[in-house]
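pasting for ref. prot 1 ->
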Amino acid sequence: MYAEERQKAILERARRDGRVDVTGLAAEFDVTYETIRRDLTALERHGVLRRVHGGAIPVERLGFEPTLNVRDSVMTQEKERIAKAALSELPDEGAILLDAGSTTGRLAEQLPTDRELTVVTNSLSIALTLTPRTNINLMLLGGRLRTRTQATVDAWALRSLAESYVDVAFMATNGISADRGLTTPDPAEAEVKRTMIASARRAVLLADHTKVGNDHFARFASVEDLDLVITDQGLAGGLADELEAAGPEVRVV
């Protein structure tokens, strides 16, 4: 087995079990402890695992919030497919909202050039992506900028959202589960996300499978508040049915 194949299997095991240990992995793959330690170090450098004593934990299970750059380097192919699938949810004309996030950022990159759209966003990085686009009427929400996520939050952003109404809100989340709903580590971002959903005719969540089943500190919506969830084929069996039972359509791409 090549190192890349072994590291992919290690990451899948960590996400499934919540943790991996060096001893167990060395025995499973019939390699030395040092080989496994090198694998874990490589995965940590990619931002998908965090080394702990004797093993590693997937970043989705940790209490800290990864930066946008770290999140944008993870699950890249899956996020591209999700963003491409979301294009079918765009209106022919009108207004959409793009929440701050790595997958919504990829949707911004793929927005069509053959129609006029008003795009409302609280993401500095998305705004910079769309600035050169002459067919986009760009509305950047003001407020305090969280450098970790490049998202604007607090009263200025909330005030603008309260006075807006869009056709579709394309949302991001750190975690989603049928029981807990949609969650994120920061309460200020949670409040903005909650107001975004309220300001939209339809709410579409773009979330790769690592977000499903994870919970974070601040809850901003119920699953039933969504109209559609677009995720990838890595979603564990049964989880799509659990989410659909709560209300939204789930599209696996």
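and prot 2 ->
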Amino acid sequence: MIRILALVAALVCAVPAIAQPLPANLDKANAIVIDTTKGRIVIKLRTDIAPQHAERIKLLAREGYYNNVPFHRVIEGFMAQTGDGKNFNGTGGSKHPNLPAEFSNVPYKRGIVGMARTSDPNSANSQFFIMFAEGASLNGKYTVIGEVVSGMDVVDRIKRGEPVVDPDKMVKVQVASDIK
């Protein structure tokens, strides 16, 4: 009986995250929807400041590259990083070439989504991170690709660690306009 109640509770918690409507006035062609093990996150992509990076995120989402990918590096008070659909641990990138930097003057603050890279400014590929708080040290040094418009409460519940033990995952990532 306890197992059945736990299963019902898990299903009840999961359904609202998947069934919830997208934010009003969202440009669905330039937004991604991330259904995670903790709930749904919606990110508005900043095609105005990082068009190549936004297109890459949409391409990888459409290829299914991000599905079941863990949040492998989650630092309290800083950010949650994901996007390694190759090795699942932060050491891999996609089959596509690295992207040239598209730095802007948009400040890193809570909810901003940035593209991860190595020390080479032109090495962003597939990995990205969501800011928990202000990160002024990143300003002008990492490409801002978007901002969370719904689901920061979900981001706040992602399991912490560097690396994370038994991490939360992006179960399914879709371009909002592709959702049927």
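The mean pLDDT is 92.
Helices lie at 2-19, 51-63, 152-156.
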